[in-house]
Amino acid sequence: MPVRPLTLALPKGRLLDDLGPLLGAAGIDAGAFAHTRKLIADVPAGCLGGAPVRLLLVKPGDVPTYVECGTADVAVAGSDTLRESGADLLEPLDLGLGRCRLAVVGPPGRSVDVILGTPGALRIATKYPSLTRAWCRARGLEAAIVHLYGSVELAALAGLSDVVVDLVSSGATLRENGLVEYETLLEVSARLVVNRAAFVLRHREVNTLREAFEGALSAVPPGSESRA
Questions:
Q1: CB–CB of 116/141 below 8 Å?
Q2: Does the domain formed by 100-187 have CATH 2.60.40.420?
């Protein structure tokens, strides 16, 4: 019986664009997803001697679930998504792509200490309720968490929340909207992650893929991808 292809889950969106040169340097062509609505493709992988790799195009927040359940053997995911999900995965390589930070953000003229001293229940809007609750517990802070899926900064501007917890890269969006950072919760970057069973059962392929990515990082250093 033929062995199924090693399955690699890739996140939709900007991170996938950043991954293009890295995948290419590792001998994996993700061009099958360009200008199409395809979500799955089997492509030859140069790093595996031309053996096929099955690529899954997945919503970023779903990537940890696909890997933890074994539908994907390996994947690329942001460390913010991984920590928020709490998935039990191996992380053998920090790819250094998509570097940013998860931060507490709000109006200027305040600070975390001022926030903690504010009477009444604090409202925090975020796409990361689990990480935000953990930060509140560590700070001994009672807060109402407002879970959003769209533009989180708007919540602070429109009065839905007192502050927000969201990703910050260059800080341009904050400056344009009159917001400032108070505190960093997490430094974020893309990671290569592996299903625990696949790491044992398909160790040679997984390790070869990891080594190919490491070699590709030397050829395509993080930060060489375009940034807005």
A1: yes
A2: no
How many whole angstroms separate alpha carbon 20 and alpha carbon 23? 5
- Percent share of the chain, pLDDT over 70: 90
Cβ 97 vs Cβ 225: under 8 Å: yes
User: For residue 144, what are the β-bridge partners?
Assistant: 123
CB 96 within 8 A of CB 31: no
121 pLDDT band, cuts 50/70/90, is confident
Q: List b or e across 12-32, with b for residues whose CB sees 16 or more CB atoms inside 10 angstroms.
A: eeebbebbbebbbbbbbbbee
What would the pLDDT profile of 183-208 be if each residue is shown by its tens digit?
999 999 999 999 999 999 999 999 99
Q: Which fold has domain 6-99+189-219?
A: D-Maltodextrin-Binding Protein; domain 2 (3.40.190)
